[in-house]
């Protein structure tokens, strides 16, 4: 019986998906479903073409968050910075990475390298604390890196 | 029969108009019309009514063409809701085929807005997230399309993704519905960075990007068809009507001379769809995007004092780094912040704690030298892996063995283009000249190496029927767990398994085993030995195989095998095909 139970436990684990976090600052992202059950792994359905309700967003929607004041932004910039704030922070601290190169393109910055160096050198001012919002970060970038 | 004069009369004039040109019947059999309606054998694969203008348009490309022409010339709705605006690819094709047709123009605000948002598309890329480590079933993988922005802003480029719609969390219901068409599948468009974050960061899967050589005209056709299918749905089937299959329709709408979608009927493995695209000379170049784990290990390998780095990620106490050179401090912090984010994404620490440490560590990092470009060497391109169908013939003393499987990859297959230690097979059958040797519904084996940073537990499970006591066929279920390690070209693993054999009597047993594989350029060596414990008997089994890869789809195997009933040497060959 014990063996049967062990077999059942290994074979039929069931996992629950996590709640997505929402907000306008750092740490905004979808989560890893930590307990991939064996059955889910057998089918690997979680990421192979099965997902929750998806939307068709060719044109970007509104944010419902406070918007930056110092630079003219569009929804594309706002969405990108909001959704990638953790990565932008990491790449800004290193002064290198795809997320800040993309940001340079979105803000029409010509000299990507100089922009990266400014983000790196002014990191404490741009990301003053962990409570910073994406719109504040954009304002700070306008002040210190453009 | 309901007879609508208003509707029939224009068709009458239309047929006069078409007098000298091919008939509408012929036109409805044109390959492009079939592609635009997702028709196979004159039945459309789209299931949602909003895709059809004729009542039984799903079952008649001819009636659908008739109705489309009718509504283009006699609009029922205005502007955005008109056939003119909702089916722009059909409209443009019909315009070309019937130049004299009096199509009544409409003001397509919504269509124009969306086309405007994707007006600067330079190229289209087929994106292939590969395997989720320690989850071999993900080898079947996923594919999506990316519309590449002209300015090279790939992160914000639009990704077209097809997926089944569900929030189901019960694995069993999930599996059953996914296999039997219980979910509906829809297309979606999201910025590509969301897909990177889903696959690279959260699921830790490598991504291969295959840039296609579509011309601007072909891309324009793809965009128009994309707009036609955006609010439609089809029944989702995990094996054949899946994510990888459905996006093939978009490729065919772009370049109708392709012949990919009609090649996939019973199964559509993502890697097979990429290989077919390659066979049709659609692929121009490739790009590799490493998973988050690969990036973490890249930084870890740059660190000289590994012990210190591992100590550091326990507490993230920066005073530990006081006596380290600035460059080495930078590496440890890059490694550390990525580990911290990984722990957060895995829900091992809460958001507040994560953010506080994250910003603190990044401030410290920003005080150190800037990073130069990093380069992570891509593994072998999966396009060069063996194909998914396989037959094999082995000779042993006084007998022959024949085998077949439709998918996909196991320990006795050639290794090129695959991640070592990840195996999944479906419907594997093997006969000798006298009898069925075994049949497995599936056989999954994962040997994922543990290293200094990551400590996964390997696992596997098989389900099927095979020869057991007294050479009789038993139903079998065999799960195992294992610890796997890597040494240069070798993976070795210690495993502990359970075995259940069912017939009139049930036999439960355990096994202890050792597994080793050596991966070399043209050969692969496999040693799989186990000791089995049953109430009636304790015995050893072994599988020792040497695989010589002669060509991509041809190998010679020699080896020795021992199980409860017999032991023998064998030699033979394996042939793979799409």
Task: Please explain how this structure is put together.
The complex is a heterodimer of chains A (146) and B (578). Chain A is mainly alpha-helical. Chain A has two domains: 2-43, no CATH class; 75-144, no CATH class. In chain A, 47% of the residues lie in helices and 1% in strands. Chain A is built from eight helices and one strand. In chain A, helix 4 (85-94) crosses helix 5 and helix 4 (85-94) crosses helix 6. The longest helix of chain A has 11 residues, at 134-144. Chain A is globular. The N and C termini of chain A lie far apart (69 Å). The model of chain A is unreliable at 1-22 (pLDDT under 50). With 578 residues, chain B is α+β, with helices and mostly antiparallel strands. Chain B has four domains: 5-109, no CATH class; 118-289, no CATH class; 292-366, no CATH class; 385-577, monomeric porin ompg (Porin). Chain B is built from 16 helices and 23 strands. In chain B, helix 10 (216-229) packs across helix 11, helix 13 runs antiparallel to helix 15 (326-345) and helix 15 (326-345) runs antiparallel to helix 16 (351-366). In chain B, 42% of the residues are buried. The mean pLDDT of chain B is 92. At the A-B interface, helix 1, helix 2, strand 1, helix 3 and helix 4 of A face helix 7, strand 5, helix 8, strand 6 and helix 9 of B. Strand 1 of chain A pairs parallel with strand 5 of chain B, so a sheet runs across the interface.
Mean pLDDT of chain A: 72
What helical percentage do the residues of chain A reach? 40-55%
Low-confidence stretches of chain B: none
What is the CA-based Rg of chain A, rounded? 21 Å
Q: End-to-end span of chain A in angstroms? A: 69 Å
Largest sheet of chain B: 12 strands, antiparallel, barrel
Name given to the CATH homologous superfamily of the largest domain in chain B: monomeric porin ompg
Number of domains of chain B: 4
Count of β-strands of chain A: 1
Work out the strand percent of chain B: 25-35%
> On the 0-100 scale, what is the average pLDDT of chain B?
92
What sort of overall outline of chain A do the alpha carbons produce when their principal axes are compared? globular
Oligomer: heterodimer
